[in-house]
Amino acid sequence: MGRSEIHAADDILDAARDILLERGVSAATTRAIADAAGAPSGSIYHRFGSRDGVLAHMWIRAVRRSQRVFLDALSTQEDPREAAVAAALSIFDFARDCRKDAQIAALFRREDLMREAPTDLAETLRALNEPVLRAVRRLGADIASASAPLDAVLLAVIDLPYGAVRRYLVRGHAPPPVLRPALESAVRAVLQSVTS
C-alpha cells in the first residue's frame, strides 16, 4: 500500500493560483506557495520540480477544467449548430462560474510556459489543445460542407467567446451576464454565414 498524500496537489496548486492572482507572479515563490498550502517546500520540489513546474501544472489544470466544460457542452446537443452555440457559451459560463481558473488560463500563453516549464511537461503542453481541436474539426464537418473553412468554426466557438471574456479576466473580473445574449447572437451569426 502506497503512502497517503499529506499535501494534496490541488491544495498546492490552489495556493499558487491564489497568490498569483492576488499578489502577482513575482510573489508566487516556492516558499510563499508552501506556506499558503501548509506544505513543506520540499514536498513542492518533490512533486513539481520547481516554481515554474508549479505554475505550469496550475495552468494545465485550469485549461483542462475549461476544456472539460467545453467538451461536455458539445455533447449536450444533437444538432451541430446548437452544440457549437452551447460550447461557445460554456466558455463564457466557465469565466463566470470558475473565474480564478479562467483568469489563470487567460494570463499565460502556452508558448511562454513551454520555455520555462520543466522538460517533462513540454509534450503535455504541446498536446494540450488537441482534444478541443479534434472536436472542433468534427463539429466543422458536421455543420457545413467541406468547403467551409475551419477558421470560421474556430471564430464562432473559440475566438468570439474568449475575446468576450478575456479583457474582464485579465482585470480580475467575471464578464457581466448582460454580454451572454450578445455573444450567443454573434456566434449564431458566424455559424449562419458558414452554412449560407
Which tags fit this structure?
196 residues, mainly alpha, Arc Repressor Mutant, subunit A, 2 domains, 11 helices, 75% helix, 0% strand
What does this structure look like?
By secondary structure, the chain is mainly α. 75% of the residues lie in helices and 0% in strands. The chain contains eleven helices and no strands. It has helices spanning 9-23, 30-37, 41-48, 51-74, 80-97, 99-107, 110-116, 122-127, 130-143, 150-170, 179-195. The chain is elongated and about 60 Å long.
How many beta-strand runs? 0
Radius of gyration: 19 Å
Architecture per CATH nomenclature, i.e. the level-2 architecture of the largest domain: Orthogonal Bundle
Tally of individual helices? 11
Q: Major beta sheet, specifics?
A: none
SS-based structural class?
mainly alpha
Mean pLDDT: 89
Uncertain segments? none
Topology record:
Blueprint: H1 9-23, H2 30-37, H3 41-48, H4 51-74, H5 80-97, H6 99-107, H7 110-116, H8 122-127, H9 130-143, H10 150-170, H11 179-195
Helix pairs in contact: 1-2, 1-4, 2-3, 4-5, 4-6, 5-6, 5-9, 5-10, 5-11, 9-10, 10-11
